[in-house]
TrEMBL record:
Keyword Signal on entry: yes
Domain of life: Bacteria
One Pfam family of this chain: Cytochrome_P460
Official protein name in the record: Cytochrome P460
């Protein structure tokens, strides 16, 4: 009888422990925001350094002929794309310079790019499993100096932006033709 009681209490303790653990795990998962976390911000900074080194952003940026854009990106845009390696992972990156200002023209951008650059929006294909629901894209909206834009709640726009929400990078790019989150590789939105 004593032995049975002992085994029963062991089972109860184990069950309680398991429940507590599950609860902690669930809470931890809920606590990790889809974007704007410390590690997202740190990753975006590592990515920016690589983009600078590869001359995709910054004062030595390779220049492409700007094109007329559409909302929500700039009035005039410039896009560069290549493979880059960040923290040992190599993936494709799309870097979009967004230019805005009064009476914008493409020649203004060609002649004074720094004056009109308001944002650099980037998609980087991260390692398998980073965000399997959305093809592992890492989304960032940088200011021209590489610091980050934040949403109205002050959450930095880096990471899985804005996973689970009906507006934002992921929600809109889901509509791109080809189901790859990329608009400009099929360009069916252009004439
Ligand atoms: C309301 C829709 C919409 C939202 C929101 C949006 N985009 Fe885009 N994005 C587009 C469209 C349309 C294009 C293609 C036309 C162009 O170049 O502007 C595009 C192009 C891009 C490209 C070039 C690669 C491609 O798709 O061809 C990048 C990089 C990009 N967006 C990043 C972002 C990031 C990062 C965010 C969030 C901070 C974001 N976008 C939010 C509509 C959107």
């Amino acid at each position: 009888m004593k032995k049975a009681l002992f085994i029963l209490s062991l089972v109860i303790i184990a069950a309680l422990g398991f429940t507590a653990c599950m609860h902690k795990n669930m809470t931890m998962q809920q606590d990790i925001p889809p974007f704007g976390s410390e590690s997202d911000v740190a990753y975006s900074q590592a990515l920016w350094k690589v983009l600078e080194k590869e001359k995709l952003v910054g004062p030595d940026q390779i220049r492409a002929l700007p094109y007329e854009g559409m909302e929500p990106h700039g009035v005039i845009l410039e896009q560069l794309s290549t493979m880059v390696t960040v923290k040992g992972h190599t993936g494709i990156v799309y870097v979009k310079a967004n230019y805005m200002g009064d009476g914008m023209t493409r020649s203004k951008v060609v002649n004074y790019p720094d004056q009109y650059l308001v944002a650099v929006t980037v998609m980087f294909k991260r390692e398998n499993g980073y965000d399997p629901d959305n093809q592992d894209w890492f989304w960032v909206k940088y200011k021209s100096d590489g610091s980050l834009f934040a949403n109205p709640k002050g959450v930095m726009l880096a990471g899985r932006v804005a996973k689970g929400m009906s507006v934002g990078c992921i929600a809109c790019h889901t509509d791109a033709d080809g189901g790859d989150y990329l608009f400009n590789n099929t360009a069916s939105h252009l004439d």
